[in-house]
Amino acid sequence: MQLLDIATYFTSESDVSRVRKGPLADADLQRLYAYPPRPRRPWIRANFVSSIDGAVTAGGLSAGLGTPADQAVFTVLRTLADAVLVGAGTVRAENYGGVRFSTDEQERRSALGLAPIPPVVVVTASAHISPDARIFTDTEVPPIVVTAASASPDARRALATTGARVVETPGDNVSTAAILAALDDLGLHRVLCEGGPGLFGQLLNDDAVDDVCLTTAPLLVAGGAGRISHSSTSSMRRMTRAHVVADDDGTLLTRWVKHRPSA
Question: Distance between CA 248 and CA 140 in Å, rounded?
Answer without folding.
Answer: 35
